[in-house]
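[09:14] KT: can someone run the structure on this one? pasting the chain below
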Amino acid sequence: MTDMTEALPYRKHPTALVESEHIGRGTRIWAFVHVLPGAIIGEDCNIGDHCYIESGAVVGNRVTIKNGVAVWEGVHLGDDVFLGPNVALTNDLLPRSRKPDWVCHPTYIERGATIGANATIVCRVRIGEYAMVGAGSVVTKDIPAHALCFGNPAAVRGWVCRCAARLTFEGEETTCRECGDQYRQTPGGIIRIV
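[09:31] RB: done, structure tokens below
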């Protein structure tokens, strides 16, 4: 990492353009990234090559944004979120070029959620904690916490633990085979109980 700047509380590749003053300690910003003024990026994040972080975007702590992702105004990424390469986020339901009265619609991706490569997230949705969205999916509605979803449009196909292992329910409760966390099914999805 000898080509990264060391004087800042975060690391920035020389080709990155960082105009925001709100970058957390230990964050790494790689080649050809553009961070606009007013963007907020937390601590210990990793922002891959050719990313764009717009004013009004909020990125939590320990977030990984892989190459080729644009994070627009109104997008809120919780702590520990993972965005795969070329994830497409949106903030406008009725886009037209140079529309003077456009409305920014927020999108919330909550703590620990994973969005697979090339997935599209239509604005005005909330993706719950530790949910996992499969590569190439198109998310058009809210996704509950711990849901495994994929397809076009994305639909819930199962459940995943915080550790990302797939959960299998034979009754109302289950224990993760990988880490031992316990979960209970509810009418709105699943909840972690231990």
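[09:33] KT: thanks! The first strand starts at residue 11 and ends at 12.
[09:34] RB: yep, looked fine to me
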